[in-house]
Amino acid sequence: MRIISGQFKGRRIQVPTNITARPTTDFAKEGLFNLLNNRIDFEGIDVLDLFAGTGSISIEFVSRDCKSVISIEQNDRHSTFIRKVCTDLKITNLSLIKTDVFKFIASCHTQFDMIFADPPYELEQLAQIPDLIFEKKLLKEDGLFVLEHSSKNKFDQHPHFVDHRNYGNVNFSFFQ
Q1: Mean pLDDT, rounded, of the chain
Q2: Is 54:82 a contact under the CB 8 Å cutoff?
Q3: How many helices (H) and strands (E) in the chain?
Q4: Tell me, what's the pLDDT at 16?
Q5: Rounded CA gap, 76 and 57, in Å?
Q6: In the beta sheet, which residues pair with residue 114?
Q7: What is the model's pLDDT at position 21?
């Protein structure tokens, strides 16, 4: 896994073979963050990363000077890996919460400038995630929610949908 920009730019972090997460490809991550660079100012924002997996997206946000990043990951091995990377890089503004994403959303009372979700593509509830984010009012007024998904999911009819981009087999839908 490679960090694209910011204070940890160019760092490569070896992901253990026992990690079962499907990390966002470097190609897709670079495309996403190039697009986000034109939409938001990373410095000083609060970010929520749902289904954090390897922590690649969370660490990319931290590297770009976000004020705080909350990463939600339920898997023990993935959580342990994220904690190790944070320790190795001396990251202090990433909070890892080891819990089920849907339980977290149901109990969260905080709003975020940016929310990113990369659920397993086969997750039954994937299509419900945008509704849950907006029902729980997890985004600040001008906040942005990005959902990574496969090409079989379409969100262009969602009332908060604003854009869609694909990078190879990786699709991102944007909501505001």
Answers
A1: 95
A2: yes
A3: 5, 7
A4: 84
A5: 18
A6: 47, 144
A7: 84
